[in-house]
Specification:
The protein is an alpha/beta fold. It has a domain at 26-218: Acetylglutamate kinase-like (Carbamate kinase, 3-Layer(aba) Sandwich), CATH 3.40.1160.10. It is 40% helix and 23% strand. The protein has 11 helices and 14 strands. The protein has helices at 2-5, 8-24, 42-57, 69-78, 94-117, 164-171, 194-204, 232-240, 248-260, 276-282, 303-307; strands at 29-34, 61-66, 85-86, 89-90, 122-126, 133-140, 150-161, 175-179, 181-183, 189-191, 209-214, 229-231, 265-270, 289-292. An 8-stranded mixed β-sheet has the order 5-8-2-1-11-13-14-12, sandwiched between helices. Strand 1 (29-34), helix 3 (42-57) and strand 2 (61-66) form a beta-alpha-beta unit. The two termini are 36 Å apart.
Length: 310
């Protein structure tokens, strides 16, 4: 373990470096989209739970939104149902929706249990609880060869998020752990992209940060090198020249929407790195890509500069 290689002085310096971040982020809301390998590797899951418990215990207010892609696919395979995707979206018929709810429900309970055993206080939520994620059916816009909008089943887009339930839980010092399932006015459940839910919640809760955990180090330049910090205009240029493309686009889109509508910053971090959350939030170097508005500093050069330019 790295800890065994550090002397007492090194450990003390690490803790001292975290203090101004803990002070500045006290009582602030962080919406964390939990996904990738961090959600399937047992050691990383346990580490994530400990990180969440620590953030809560020092006075921060994490809100977790999780997906469940690998778990859903695994359950469908056991059921003998082939997974089908259209433009990166899971086609969700009645049987698939049942698998989505079962797999994400089980994962939700596991995350909640791990956080509680680590000393935190977590409560699992389905977006249908109290109708707090209200959704409508999503139709994909037609592309060449399509005769009209593409129906992908019970896949939803968000109409409204009622944050009252989450705010109530936070007043009692609970960490909400949210399944990305929405519900229509007619009671129909909808499978919703977890990045979309996280971004929408970050805006609705006036969060300090939106953090997207992935299987990549962050936003990479054309040479595959991590870009530590970018502004909204920088990201627009990177998309326009093709540097950002493919599977990163939906995550970037969620991050951009959040920052443009009031979230102070969005972060894309590598969930495969142990203690990724603590490294990004409580150290001056961070480990991923930070996205800020055009009016703010381009990246965190050091703790003092950051806190004196807010």
């Amino acid at each position: 373990m790295i800890s065994a290689l550090l002397g007492a002085g090194d450990k003390a310096n690490i803790l001292a470096e975290a203090l101004p971040y803990i002070q500045s982020f006290h009582n602030k809301i962080f919406v964390i989209k939990y996904g990738g390998n961090a959600m399937t590797d047992e050691a990383l899951k346990a580490g994530f739970a400990r990180d969440i418990a620590l953030l809560q215990l020092v006075g921060m207010k994490p809100v977790i939104v999780h997906g469940g892609g690998p778990q859903i696919s695994g359950l469908l395979e056991k059921m003998g149902v082939k997974s089908e995707f259209r433009r990166g979206m899971r086609v969700t018929d009645a049987q698939t929706l049942e698998a989505v709810e079962m797999a994400t429900g089980k994962l939700n309970q596991e995350i909640v249990g791990l956080i509680n055993r680590s000393g935190g206080k977590a409560v699992g939520l389905n977006g249908q609880d109290g109708y707090f994620i209200q959704a409508r059916k999503m139709l994909l816009p037609p592309e060449p060869g399509d005769t009209g909008p593409v129906d992908i089943g019970a896949v939803g887009e968000i109409e409204k998020v009622d944050t009252e339930l989450i705010s109530l839980l936070q007043t009692r010092n609970f960490v909400p752990v949210i399944m990305p399932i929405g519900v229509g006015l007619d009671g129909q459940a909808y499978n919703i992209n977890a990045d979309l839910v996280a971004g929408t919640l970050a805006r609705a809760l006036d969060a300090e940060k939106l953090i997207l955990m992935t299987n990549t180090p962050g936003v990479l330049d054309r040479n595959g090198k991590l870009i530590a910090g970018v502004t909204l205009s920088d990201v627009d240029a990177l998309i326009a020249d093709g540097t950002i493309s493919g599977g990163m686009l939906p995550k970037i889109g969620s991050a951009l929407d959040a920052v443009r509508t009031g979230v102070k910053s969005a972060h894309i971090i590598d969930g495969r790195v142990p203690n990724a959350l603590l490294l990004e939030l409580l150290t001056s170097e961070g480990i991923g890509t930070l996205i800020r508005g055009d009016g703010g500093p381009h990246f965190l050069t050091d703790t003092q500069r950051y806190f004196h330019t807010e």
